[in-house]
Write a structure and sequence with these properties.
TIM Barrel, disordered C terminus, binds iron/sulfur cluster, 374 residues, alpha/beta, five-stranded mixed β-sheet
């Protein structure tokens, strides 16, 4: 009988979609190198040897949060020594003329007014018109909708009017009620997260998607999570701009144990690479698979570019959420460092914006502007 890798190779050649069982069997294969090669083949058919990155900055305006999810090292209650909140001026001080994207997420702040959030975006737009704003997880959008008595669509539309161009993929964690009840019982579950992204796609906001893995979830739950994303992407595929949008990327996030003691250590590099490869093979309708260097580490992220990933995120600037959980990676990387990292892995660095439009292609020691078709 043919091995699972033989069967999946044949499906890939015939452009046949992988099933839940295929993906589960792939998690059990020993030959991770062959799995990676297959995922790389699929990635290259779409993106050649390109690896995307962005000059970006993460801004977490406050860690004060009304919830206390068990797996979270980032959030704090007001009055605690580590609690902080930024003024709009402090948000602006984290922006500069080099940035293409800001990624803004934070705690569910108990007191901030609706106008504060809108004003933050207006100020960024006014001072740094070249920056694209990617902000607020579905968890935050749900919170704003309830707190300020606005529909999700209205929340998104008002943010769009002041500069929001995309949603990040956070807050999805893993779409399992079992895990949700154990680790984040008061946070929205899969149906609401998917509903909010569906509405975002409908109003023309592209979004990203994530999976937090390596804690207490099973491989079945990981695969079911990916399949729910694939299903939503199938549904919203017809909403292509200007009528709508879909998921731009899938970002597997390796869980950082920090002080929560949910697990003793973060997933192995092999587990990271297999997850990336299976995502590339299973998620045939999500264009970009990201190897997020903050959680995987630079070394694994560069290897992941040969396991199906075509993106390693960006310069980041100041990562607080994973580093609150003791992530071992640096808090930021320079553009030169990212370019070098990608080159060393044998790929061509492609600088992009928040919407995956090409800014520069770094061919050898030169670059040519906008030369990669999207
Ligand atoms: S995971 Fe998000 S919602 Fe939960 S406590 Fe942390 S910041 Fe708050």
């Amino acid at each position: 009988m043919a091995s699972i890798l033989d069967r999946v190779t044949s499906k890939v050649q015939q452009q046949e979609r992988l099933t839940r069982d295929d993906a589960l069997e792939l998690f059990a294969v020993d030959d991770a190198i062959r799995l990676g090669r297959l995922a790389d083949q699929v990635k290259r058919a779409r993106w050649s040897d390109r690896a995307h990155f962005v000059i970006n900055r993460q801004i977490n305006p406050s860690n004060i949060c009304v919830l206390s999810c068990r797996f979270c090292d980032f959030a704090a209650k007001r009055g605690r020594a580590n609690a902080y909140e930024m003024t709009i001026q402090e948000v602006l001080e984290r922006c500069n003329v080099e940035l293409r994207e800001v990624h803004i997420v934070g705690g569910l702040h108990p007191d901030w007014k609706w106008e504060y959030y809108l004003e933050m975006f207006r100020a960024i737009q006014a001072n740094f018109p070249q920056i694209q704003i990617k902000a607020w997880t579905a968890v935050e959008i749900d919170y704003f909708s309830k707190k300020f008595r606005l529909s999700v669509e209205e929340v998104l539309r008002q943010f769009q009017e002041v500069g929001l161009v995309a949603l990040p993929g956070g807050g999805a964690e893993v779409f399992s009620e079992r895990v949700r009840k154990a680790l984040f019982p008061f946070k929205i579950g899969a149906p609401r997260w998917l509903e909010i992204h569906r509405i975002a796609h409908k109003v023309g906001l592209p979004t990203n998607s994530t999976l937090l893995y390596g804690h207490m979830e099973t491989h079945e739950e990981r695969v079911d999570h990916m399949l729910k994303l694939r299903e939503l992407q199938d549904d919203t595929r017809g909403f292509t701009p200007p009528r709508g949008a879909g998921f731009m990327s899938f970002i597997p996030l390796a869980y950082q144990p920090g002080k929560t003691q949910v697990v003793a250590r973060q997933p192995s590099a092999l587990e990271d690479l297999k997850t990336i490869a299976i995502a590339r093979l299973l998620l045939d309708n999500i264009p970009h698979i990201k190897a997020y260097w903050v959680t995987m580490g630079e070394e694994s992220a560069s290897v992941a570019l040969h396991f199906g990933a075509d993106d390693i995120d960006g310069t980041i600037g100041e990562e607080r959420i994973m580093h609150a959980a003791d992530a071992a990676s640096p808090v930021s990387l320079t553009r030169d460092h990212l370019v070098e990292l990608i080159r060393e892995s044998g790929c061509t660095p492609v600088e992009r914006d928040a919407l995956y439009h090409t800014i520069q292609v770094y061919n050898d020691h030169a670059y040519c502007e906008n030369s990669v078709p999207q």
